[in-house]
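Same chain as my last thread, 400 residues:
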Amino acid sequence: MTVSEEEREGPAAPEREPEDARLARAALTRVAEPGDELVGRWLAEYGPRSVVEALRADRPLPGVSSDRWAGLRARTRRAAPGRDLELAARVGGRFVCPGDREWPRQLDDLGHGRPIGLWVRGPCSLRFVALRSVAMVGARACTDYGAHVAAELAGALAERGWTVVSGGAYGIDGAAHRGALAVGGATVGVLACGVDRAYPAGHRELLERVAAGGLLVAELPPGDHPTRGRFLQRNRVIAALTRGTVVVEAARRSGSLVTARRAGGLGRQLMAVPGPVTSGLSAGTHQLIRDGAVLVGSAGEVTELAGHMGELAPDEAFPAVPRDLLAPQAGQVLDALPAGGAAGLAAVAEGACTSPEAALARLHELSCLGFVERVGDRWQLCRGPSRHAEGGIPRTHHRD
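reply #2:
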């Protein structure tokens, strides 16, 4: 069950960190790689200012090798948090720290691997848009089916007031962002690079649209570039930030499955969209379903799982065939007629297990509805055009 933001925060949110501690955190985003749990433990034990001071003074902290300490110190020497904050501000960005009103407390579920801080670009409050959010991920080289489903689901979720969170990549990510934007909804792109960089370059315009109406979020400072490891660590933020993750289309070896596993491990709702069994790009989603992910195919089904208690998917109205609209007795009489040829009243009554008088009454009703016709003293299924073809119940040609 997803814990609400109010329940998560308790009676009061933590206090905002002093400005020098915020500068230290900003500096550490350029020093440590995303998800570095050793640095996370240092932050929890010593605080950001003491960690930065130890790096600058060459006072090694517990648990680090000499080689790694040397690497961290080299990065510390080139860290310039004031410059990074200025670069972020130039593109409408800001730095959000744990304890800020905008900090989404659900990220604390990552423990020592939670972000040191987040670089955020866009007009929305990250905390507020994440309160009611769903991650949508999948294959980069997706099929037309996958792109269509992602866009339709994202648009329908956005119309229901949900924020769609994805990674800004080609394929399912891009389709999800576009689907939300198409209906004027909020969407968040979690990047594996700085918020001032367009990656992939072909999504420059899309990412600008996301930043204009939603948010771009990154752990890395302005100007930093993506790597394979940073993509994988980015996925943990997508999983933790949202109330549930929907995998739309994924092969058996797909980065989106990393997000799925993270979401499941964090106790978030894990959902998957089925696809053709002949498609290798559906093999990953099918495996997730076999392993316990919930099969979903509509926004209503997603919100029923990820939303608050009582947000139920609407009952599906299945199309009725004419035979379904008949009273049971009339259906029994109709079933008693042969598929080919005609039958007498006595045979129909016997087949329907009723009296001849009751059978005759039902036959008259069926005749008025265009199901049967009389041929002399016998009855048969209607062969000609139904006399109710224009607005009544259409005729049936044979029995099931």
